[in-house]
Write a structure and sequence with these properties.
- With 119 residues, the protein is mainly β.
- 0% of the residues lie in helices and 61% in strands.
- Strands 2, 4, 5, 6, 9, 10 and 11 form a 7-stranded mixed sheet that branches.
- Strand 9 and strand 10 form a beta hairpin.
Length: 119
């Protein structure tokens, strides 16, 4: 299994910025796609941003122009830079990785990190 550990959540005022990090650990794996999801209270989990191994990205309409996603392949880490934060960005943010090994593939989730944006 590939284990994901997130960090960087917290409390920020509207208009502020936060950077989330997610590091993967395990043995002999390759990350094919990284993604960040979020889940606000009473709502379904939704895709925020994703990045493929070739660098292609996809963002939810609600965060386009405000969030960026990037990776450090040497560190097996993905980042979500969040700027111009709004109260509606308040949610638990989850890291997701689709990965493969020689004999199979799977998906791993992080434990989640809370982001609270105050008005």
């Amino acid at each position: 299994q590939v284990h994901l550990v997130e960090s960087g959540g917290g409390l920020v005022q509207a208009g502020g910025s936060l950077r989330l990090s997610c590091a993967a650990s395990g043995s002999m794996f390759r990350i094919n796609t990284w993604a960040w999801y979020r889940q606000a209270p009473g709502k379904q989990r939704e895709l925020v941003a994703e990045i493929g191994s070739g660098g292609s990205t996809n963002f939810a309409d609600s965060v386009k122009g405000r969030f960026t996603i990037s990776t450090d392949n040497a560190k097996n880490t993905v980042y979500l830079q969040m700027s111009s934060l709004k109260p509606e960005d308040t949610a638990v943010y989850y890291c997701n990785a689709k990965w493969s090994r020689m004999y199979g593939s799977d998906v791993s989730w992080g434990q989640g990190t809370q982001v609270i944006v105050s008005a």
